[in-house]
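Justification of resources, computational component.

The compute hours requested in this renewal are based largely on the per-chain cost of generating structure records like the one below. Each record pairs the submitted sequence with a full structure-token output. That output is archived, and it is also reused by downstream analysis tasks.
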Amino acid sequence: MFTGIIEAVGTIAALVPRGGDVRVHVATGKLDLGDVKLGDSIAVNGVCLTAVELPGNGFWADVSRETLARSAFVDLRSGSRVNLEKALTPTTRLGGHLVSGHVDGVGEVVSREDNARAVQFVIRAPRELARYIALKGSITVDGTSLTVNAVDGAEFSLTIVPHTLAETVMAEYRPGRRVNLEVDLLARYIERLLLGDKAAESGTQGISEAFLAEHGYLKH
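The structure output for this chain reads:
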């Protein structure tokens, strides 16, 4: 588990194909690895990876085909800058929100505009994730815990203050950039609970408008 508070910006030092998937070397910059052991988890742009080698200037991790297919990790190249966060501990301050490091989908930056000293971004989420994104709710973008300022269909707005721009890779965002999205864990659990006994039925994916109407949640 993570908090979505980025601890450092690292760099992809190497990407090595390994039998259909990839082994990645992440140079971790100012991230303190003094308490990191083999097998520990580190989030890289919001993707939870397991450290399999610790050469001193960073770590190596394996990236599965599933991760490559479901995240924007496939867009990274040697030299790409990435957000880094070590897994939380029982004494970690929860400054953001609970983040699993399991990417739900890939969004796209639609627009970027200056807003005083901050920057306003509009990001388009995959259609199937839109129902989990709420005004003033939490969302994780490339591992960064952020507050949603506006929602319009599958698009949502974020206001990013100068500190966040300086301490993450968000300063590099331009329209067309693909980003990793993880929705709030609570939204997913609430959806599952609302399904009730139907959650045990094969093929049940989530709550549809038909389900809501059938159970009186939608009034016409």
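The radius of gyration is 18 Å. The mean pLDDT is 90.
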